[in-house]
Amino acid sequence: MKLAFYPGCSLESSAKEYKDSTLLVARALGLDMEEIPDWICCGATAAHMSNEILAVALPAYDLLRAKRMGADAVVASCAACYSRMRSANFELKRNPETVERVAEVLGERYEGDMDVRHFIEIVSELPAEELKAKVKKSLDGLRVASYYGCLLVRPAEVTGFDDREDPRTLDRLVEALGGEPLDWRYKVECCGASLAFSRPDISDKMSGDILQDARDSGADVVMVACPLCHSNLDLRQCDIEKRIGADLEIPVLYFTQVLGLALGASARSLGMHKHMIDPLPLLKKRGLRV
To answer: Is 174 left (phi over 0), alpha (psi -120 to 50) or beta?
Structure first.
């Protein structure tokens, strides 16, 4: 299968460690992903709040470029990019008028027929025994709260990603790597997303509830699959602690970083030194720092 990799804006800037760890893991697992040339922003939050055709045309542009590559599927690591591309396909497949209007914008017809996958889906489809055979350092003893957030699982008719109330894809990955996946209440609750910029009081409360529940559930780390979720839970954690009056101090890692550790990569090569909440003391304590 030929995979076209769409990094998106965040993975080229504030979440560079997510891109680096994604590509490192892909190489280690023998997955060949070629970056879409001259890709543009998928529109993220802003486009679908301002212009319904632009919200479809922006991801359609990138999906068309992937088609020209002869790709079988587009792979996104960002949950927001994944959501926008899946949403564009959904809208184009059910609305011929949108197909025509987007064709006018792009100068080329696209009918929503390029498969879009999140990177965790690609990893989860590898045979379990094949994945376990590549593990060089078991996550034994690491208690992980897998956080899916909103956009991987909702709307269910758009993403089709696992169960929208109790997804298990990330949990099964943790288990395969030797770690302990936790059952906890906030795995699919919203972190506040871009409210962090306009209403940080609301966003901090929402993210604080997530972090507090993870801590109360005994988690060593929260594991995420979205750069905006990571930003809210990691970058803003000190502000959240002040706002809610609680001492959290819980590392937030991308699932590719956790997987990379198990595959034998160093914490530095996975970009863990860039996080606001330093995970290295915990990893050293658990015998995972390399």
So the answer is: alpha
